[in-house]
Write a structure and sequence with these properties.
Length: 402
């Protein structure tokens, strides 16, 4: 929804720029040393030149700083610079160089089975004679280096059993309403809650590619331990991103070290070949981490069958990816027909039954109704008119999860 996009940009823009490039969170700290390559030679910065764009090659092992590399589970560094794929290319034969560390996918590497895999492309460091380049992983000897496998990154544990939350934008009484409804967590589609504090856990979000900045990534790390990915990238007017865009940027979100939720697709999360399916396939191929699946769901059938339709979808997505589920937006709305919204009896019955099933489902970690405010154009589906005045829907949601 375009109103939410405007909100996300405003909330993110209050973060002061100029904090510098976000530091990589080490999965493990390795002491600096040589990387042995094919033919008994070492990975070397040509001419020991620390200038951006200097080629990385194989050279006779000599113990100099040009061959002293640190692998920290996310990046590979020598001479104060990062191992980098020139122009962030994903093509076979792309030149490998050193460059100022910037946290992009072109500089993200993991080690597996003696291979160094660039997670921005899913391709391997490869030796073509003395030249080092990027190439599709083959398992051949020219892609084998003296590196130790990167252990799984340590991420914060899953949240406690308290599941119920709310999505919200700013409105009079927000703080009181969050408390009165009994929400254990909330989010606002933005990177911070500086202007929207409440007595519950705040979970930040990276809305789209424009929000992926060093300042915003530093800010979300200060907000908590869990980060929500892109908002409806499959929908025009929302994040509206390609799968490749999202995959290329994902290493920067992962580098925060936070527990990380998938991009939240608007629909089709269980569809083979759909947006989320292609993203999850690409993440596996590139060695990227996704800790839970984030979903949105809106039903246009206002009958007693609605809760079963909703939970059937949630379970189908869980079964497809085998990961915990967060439902960060859900409700009953008919976007193309009439009536657009359910009546009071229909919405309260749906909230009562859907929350009962969400609470009982062991694979659902958290859920959030759309949305907390019942003001202006959200009065038909919102939960609270002010800090202490719930709608009928708000009363039903307040009773949930107790």
């Amino acid at each position: 929804m375009s109103a939410r996009k405007r909100l996300a940009v405003v909330v993110s823009s209050v973060v002061v720029a100029g904090l510098g490039v976000l530091g990589i969170s080490n999965a493990f700290a390795a002491t600096a040393g040589p990387i042995n390559g094919p033919g008994g030679r070492c990975v070397d910065v040509a001419g020991a030149n620390s200038a951006n764009g200097t080629a990385v090659q194989l050279y006779a092992c000599n113990g100099t700083g040009a061959q002293s590399w640190t692998i920290d589970g996310a990046s590979v560094k020598a001479l104060g610079k990062c191992l980098d794929v020139a122009a962030a290319s994903r093509a076979d034969g792309a030149r490998v160089q050193i460059y100022d560390c910037n946290g992009t996918g072109a500089q993200q590497w993991t080690s597996s089975g003696g291979r160094l895999v660039n997670t921005g492309s899913g391709k391997c460091l490869d030796a073509d004679g003395t030249r080092l380049q990027l190439w599709t992983c083959t398992g051949h000897a020219n892609q084998t280096f003296g590196v130790t496998d990167t252990p799984p990154a340590t991420v914060p544990p899953a949240p406690a059993a308290a599941k119920k939350g709310v999505s919200t934008w700013q409105f009079p009484g927000l703080t009181g309403a969050v408390k009165d409804v009994g929400a254990n967590w909330y989010y606002n589609w933005g990177t911070n809650n500086d202007s929207m504090p409440a007595d519950a856990e705040f979970v930040p979000m990276i809305w789209d590619e424009n929000v992926v900045t060093a300042a915003n990534l530093a800010k979300v790390k200060a907000e908590g331990s869990t980060l929500l990915g892109f908002n409806e990238p499959d929908l025009a007017g929302q994040a509206e991103m390609t799968v490749e865009q999202a995959l290329d940027l994902w290493p920067q979100l992962q580098a925060t070290g936070m527990r990380l939720g998938s991009p939240a697709v608007a629909f089709g999360g269980n569809t083979p070949g759909g947006w989320l399916d292609r993203f999850m396939t690409g993440a596996r191929q590139r060695g990227l981490r996704v800790d839970f699946i984030t979903l949105h769901w809106y039903g246009s059938d206002f009958s007693s069958a609605a809760a079963g339709q909703f939970m059937g979808y949630v379970k189908a997505v869980h079964d497809r990816y085998g990961l915990p589920i967060w439902v960060t937006e859900y409700g009953l709305m008919n976007f193309t027909g009439t009536p657009k919204f359910p009546n009071t009896a229909q919405i309260t019955a749906f909230i009562t039954e859907s929350t009962r099933q969400l609470q009982a489902a062991p694979y659902v970690e958290r859920y959030a109704w759309f949305s907390l405010p019942a003001v202006g154009d959200s009065v038909d589906y919102g939960l609270y008119r002010d800090a202490t005045t719930p709608t009928a829907a708000g009363q039903a949601y307040r009773a949930a999860g107790r």
